[in-house]
C-alpha cells in the first residue's frame, strides 16, 4: 500500500495502458531530483503507446521547464499532430474549426498544445509565430477555455 505522501505524487492521466501509466508516474516522481531520468521514463511511455497523448504532454512540459525549447516544440508539434488525427481535425491549425467545441479529449489536447506552443515560441523569441498561434486560438477557442489568454497577455508584454 502506498503511503499518503506517495499518493499525493500520483497524477491522474486518465484511462491509459497500465505500463504507460506506471512509466509516467515514475517520471513525475523522478522529475524533482533527476529530470533526465524523468525524460527517459516519458520517452519509454511514448514509445510504448504513441497513440496516447499524455506522454507527449509530459515530454513537452519537462523540456519547457528544462529550457530545451527546440525539443519541447518538436514534441508538442508531434503530440498536436496525433491529437488532431484522433479528433478528425486538419493537421494545420489554421484550418481548425472556428469556435471548436473541445471540452475534453483529443480536440482539447490539440488546443491546449497549441497554447503551449505559443508560449514556447515566445520563449524562443519567435513572437510572430506565437502571435499566429494565438490568433488561431482566439478563433478556435474564443472563450479561452484552455488558458491561452494568459499567453496573450505575456505576448503583449516582454517575455524573455
Question: Describe it for me?
Answer:
The protein is mostly helical. The protein has a single domain (14-156), classed as Serine Threonine Protein Phosphatase 5, Tetratricopeptide repeat, CATH 1.25.40.10. Helix content is 67%, strand content 0%. The protein has eight helices and no strands. It has helices at residues 4-8, 18-31, 35-48, 54-66, 69-87, 105-123, 127-140, 148-156. Helix 2 packs parallel to helix 4 (54-66), helix 5 packs antiparallel against helix 6 and helix 7 (127-140) packs antiparallel against helix 8 (148-156). The N and C termini lie far apart (45 Å).
Going by CATH, the homologous superfamily would be Tetratricopeptide repeat domain
Based on the structure given, which CATH architecture is correct? Alpha Horseshoe
- Helix/strand order, N-terminal first: HHHHHHHH
The average pLDDT value, as a whole number, equals 90
Helix content: 55-70%
**Please, how many domains?**
1
Main sheet: strands, sense, barrel: none
* Stretches with pLDDT under 50, minimum 5 residues: 1-6
Strand content: under 5%
The counted number of beta strands is 0
Radius of gyration: 16 Å
- Using the coordinates above, name the CATH class: Mainly Alpha
Q: Fill in the CATH topology.
A: Serine Threonine Protein Phosphatase 5, Tetratricopeptide repeat
Query: Helix segment count?
Result: 8
Structural class: mainly alpha
- Intertermini distance: 45 Å
Rough shape?
A: globular
Amino acid at each position: 500500500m502506498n503511503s499518503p505522501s506517495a499518493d499525493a505524487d500520483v497524477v491522474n492521466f486518465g484511462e491509459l495502458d497500465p505500463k504507460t501509466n506506471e512509466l509516467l508516474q515514475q517520471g513525475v516522481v523522478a522529475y524533482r531530483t533527476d529530470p533526465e531520468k524523468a525524460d527517459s521514463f516519458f520517452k519509454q511511455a511514448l514509445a510504448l503507446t504513441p497513440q496516447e497523448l499524455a506522454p507527449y504532454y509530459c515530454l513537452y512540459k519537462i523540456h519547457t521547464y528544462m529550457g530545451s525549447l527546440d525539443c519541447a516544440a518538436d514534441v508538442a508539434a508531434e503530440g498536436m499532430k496525433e491529437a488532431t488525427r484522433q479528433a478528425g481535425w486538419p493537421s494545420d491549425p489554421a484550418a481548425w474549426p472556428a469556435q471548436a467545441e473541445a471540452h475534453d479529449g483529443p480536440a482539447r489536447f490539440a488546443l491546449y498544445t497549441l497554447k503551449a506552443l505559443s508560449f514556447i515560441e515566445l520563449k524562443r523569441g519567435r513572437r510572430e509565430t506565437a502571435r499566429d498561434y494565438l490568433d488561431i486560438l482566439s478563433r478556435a477557442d474564443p472563450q479561452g477555455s484552455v488558458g491561452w489568454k494568459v499567453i496573450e497577455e505575456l505576448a503583449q508584454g516582454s517575455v524573455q
